[in-house]
Amino acid sequence: MNTRDLAYFSALVELKSYTEVANQFKVSQPTITVAIQRLETEFGAPLVQRDRAHNKLTITRAGTLLDQRSQQILKDLELAHREVEQADQTTIRFGIPPIIGTMWFPLVAGELFAKGLLSATQTLEVGSEQLLEELDSGNIDVALLGSVRPLRHDNLDITLLASHPFKAVVSVDHPLAGAGHISFEQLARDNFITMTGKFVHPQALKAYSEFAGFNPKVVYSTPTLSLIKGLVRANLGVSLLVDDAIQPGDGVVSLTLDDPLPERFNMSLVVRKAFMPNRLQQEFISTLFSLKKVAKSEK
């Protein structure tokens, strides 16, 4: 079976037009027709029904089933091409969210530098949700990811390195600044400043606010941790951040939340199961494992 035929068929399912598929792949329309016929012969079932009178194309049940399978086949094939191309590369394609890069990555950066690994690293710094997609697609090979619940993924090897609670963060001038601990419901009237949607913090904010029974008024979202703390320090709103994000001298106050929610900031080391690291890449991954000792979880 020609995998190119599967690519043509997948496009036909999406576009419902032989002409558009031919244009997309820059081939003749008969090429697409013959490819579909080959697949129908291969699988012994009609995949497409054409109503020429009404210029209508319908995918049969057999065609729908094949399309579902072919999507994974084509994805795996594309990933295989990328991995073969990268097999002899002396680079490490690494993903990290900014908040982990700020708080925990420096704990191992010195060791990576001493081993000559930092200079070989190509780093993608975006939110954990996007990094998970990039890993699964083969655009990066290893990542440190944050999640509000322990990660599960069929195609990825995941090692939980640390788990930290979320805390409410307020200005020193906030009425609750001296409370020490609060219920999230006490912040119902406040404005909120949060990380943008590709990070895990909005997920935690949603969980806490739903538990407390109110919709948070988000007045500003940003991927920059220092900006969040600056706006909170100016008493322009409150925030929900992982506890280690707040350092002495930030000019803000972190409050323990009494709400009995399971959401925490979980930091995990994630590698594709099919990834076969070379010596350089394996040394990089092994060094990241040491974060399990230095970025200790907080109960």
What are the main properties of this structure?
globular; five-stranded mixed β-sheet; Arc Repressor Mutant, subunit A; 299 residues; alpha/beta; D-Maltodextrin-Binding Protein, domain 2
Q: How would you characterize the overall build of this protein?
A:
The chain is an alpha/beta fold. It folds into 3 domains: 3-86, Winged helix-like DNA-binding domain superfamily/Winged helix DNA-binding domain (Arc Repressor Mutant, subunit A), CATH 1.10.10.10; 92-163 and 265-294, Periplasmic binding protein-like II (D-Maltodextrin-Binding Protein, domain 2, 3-Layer(aba) Sandwich), CATH 3.40.190; 166-257, D-Maltodextrin-Binding Protein, domain 2 (3-Layer(aba) Sandwich), CATH 3.40.190.10. 41% of the residues lie in helices and 22% in strands. The protein contains 11 helices and 13 strands. The strands form 4 sheets. Strands 4-3-5-13-6 form a 5-stranded mixed beta sheet, with helices on both faces. Strands 8-12-7-11 form a 4-stranded mixed beta sheet. Strands 1-2 form a two-stranded antiparallel ribbon. Helix 1 (3-15) crosses helix 2 (18-25), helix 1 (3-15) packs across helix 3 and helix 2 crosses helix 3 (29-43). The protein is globular. The mean pLDDT is 89.
Order of helices and strands: HHHEEHEHHEHEEEEEHEHEEEHH
Superfamily at the CATH H level of the largest domain? Periplasmic binding protein-like II
Could you estimate the helical fraction of the residues in percent? Answer: 40-55%
Number of E strands: 13
CATH level 1 name of the largest domain: Alpha Beta
Radius of gyration: 25 Å
Strand order across the largest sheet: 4-3-5-13-6
Number of domains: 3
Counting H and I runs of at least 4 residues, what is the number of helices?
A: 11
> What share of residues are in beta strands?
15-25%
Keywords: DNA-binding, Transcription, Transcription regulation
Protein name: LysR family transcriptional regulator
Family: Belongs to the LysR transcriptional regulatory family.
InterPro entries: LysR_HTH_N (IPR000847), LysR_subst-bd (IPR005119), WH-like_DNA-bd_sf (IPR036388), WH_DNA-bd_sf (IPR036390)
